[in-house]
Task: structure prediction
Amino acid sequence: MGPAAQPSGSGSRQRWWIRDAIGLAVVIILLAIVSSTIERIPIPGMAYYFRIIVLAGINVILAVSLNIINGHAGQFSLGHAGFMAVGAYTSAFFTFFYFNPYLIAHGGDSSPVLQNALFLVALLIGGLAAAVAGYIVGIPSLRLRGDYLAVVTLGFGEIIRVIVLNIDKVGAARGLAGIPNWSSFFWVYFFAWLTAFVSFRLVRSKIGRAFFSVREDEIAAEAMGINTTRYKVQAFVLGSFFAGIAGGLLAHYLAYLNPSMFTFIRSIEVVVMVVLGGMGSISGAVIAAIGLTFLLEQLRNVKDWLHLSSDPRMVIYALLLIGLMLTRRQGILGRKEIWDVMPRRKDVIPEKPDEEGEGKLDDTSGPPVQ
Amino acid sequence: MMAVKKTDESAFLSASNVTISFGGLTAVSDFNLSLRQHELVGLIGPNGAGKTTLFNMLTGVYQPTSGVIRIGGVGTAGMAPYEITKLGVARTFQNIRLFKDLSVLQNVRIGSHIHYHYGFGGSVLHTAAYARAEREGNERARDLLAIFGLEDRADDEAKNLPYGDQRRLEIARALAAKPTLLLLDEPAAGLNTGETIDLMQTIRDVKDRFGLAILLIEHNMELVMGICERILVLNYGETIAQGSPEDIQSNPVVIEAYLGEAVEAE
Result:
């Protein structure tokens, strides 16, 4: 994924943090450049496309984070909208009631640095709150599998929504309007990158392998010394954390929250993205999230093109999904990543980019060339 | 290989009066065993004798109804399977339980999960400790694959291996945990004669190479009699005989359990 995933080249033991710091700096600079120019691209209706791009970024975070739970650890969760709601409302609560009034009172609403710092803090609080919720939901997942777990997580998501619906402080059914408009292309795509980065890194670590083993065979995993309970909960906590971040980003982008935005239909949408991309494929989740977000928007035009009286958008969407599942059940990429299915160029993409081997591993990491 | 904490005299595994009942059925009753390091003991008995149930108790999948199991001097009552693995016990399964969709190499690397000493931070930041552990783990896994002649299949999905190789891979994966005690549940099931002979040699080799204690369940008498130093015979959960392969082969109780009551000679 990001530049930080590049091999360090040398076998130095101390270079990893320099490698990651450079990677992070490159990502931030690139995002800063793109975010300062993208809105000015002279395309008719750019403001509309820009909005879709930002929402696509939020969906990327949701899909990649759900992929950790569903795709990697194999725990079928239908509660992602619930975690998202926790993050959205928690972060909005802090910015709406505390951070923004503080900024205005201290005349700091003209200070972008302070505003962004406060926003970041609010996002992290929202993410942590969602992670706590993920921990709580992770507990029943210790005993439940498959369909049963799906039902429990679905129930959880609805409980969250109903609770929010009854908290008057955050607007209840009226919704919470006037949330400061602090989200930006930069933050959305920074966290999209971060989610994918963490996910990619985990896949190539013992934690990722433990997730896979839980998905493949829990009894065998336990026999390998893997505390399956712990890793299931860890997957839930991590996935929920990023879902919470996505919720916070959405809240501060729309500047409005309503419990009806977090129904289980929203969870299903994210599940569809993960399934469509290929369960377990991070790049698949990214592609499906972006693709579906744009597709669903573009389908709005079909009504006008065909001069229909009612909108066929969801019908076409459903047919497309059915068609894809009939022809390619494993999703676009299956469990592979995009570079696994691209024509092999081993000189560009090393098989094990993060093994800081002294060149020894590179000789053995690929399939035998014969 | 492993640090030998106890002297060779004291048993690594000891089971005393181990009994398990499921409802009214006593699957294993009053089982006693003490297994020292470097010992290779066979567990035989007709189908349903309680052999796999016993394995499941030794590995924490089931908790005994009564009796005490000690591994490396530690009582395992109430311990989860993953905790028992950390005491130095690894196992294979009667019905192969590989991580089918993962590569052969990944399977073995997951086997050595408990030997990767880095945490969440190391996993995300890929620190120097991570790099070292992964490099060592990778080399170790490839060494193990080489022992089992699977090095050329490292990147294949486990489910695509021929049956015999899947059995071998399961043993390689178990060895990746650097166990002191290896439990093999019917390692030769489904193998042909040639493969079984190869497997016997491999089991002997890895036992000597890694200084293992091995407890194996097997129906293939050729294998059991060929490599086991001591054999226990279970029937209806009871230990009906134990001793050297020669003793067992001539033991009338064992013959009766396997073949039915002896017919009087004329």
In short: Chain B touches chain A through 46 residues (CB under 8 Å).
